[in-house]
Amino acid sequence: MARVNGTAHTITNNSFKELPIAIRLMYGMAKGKIDTGFYIAASDCVIKNNKINHCGTGILIGGSKNADWTGKFDTKRYPSRTMQDVAPFNNEVKSNAIKNTRVPVLKETAP
Asked: What pLDDT is stored for residue 109 in this prediction?
């Protein structure tokens, strides 16, 4: 599984098979180069030409929405908000071959 946090990642030409979720673009606590956070929302990433077969969900846009990290890291050492409520943004998802997968693409959105 590819679990993606942060900015400007490229996920191309991979093969994913028999996974609960093949590619997961995560919510974050901040927006990449704009904010500082313990986890950065997946942004400005390229996800293309991947083969996804026999998975529960092919591509999840918005994993860990509203996860609360209170008390799970040192906010003095790593200054950050503790709620993952910044949705993934500006990602390019195209030309992926998704077959025999229950949910090809699932987009979770903020309330």
From this structure: 64
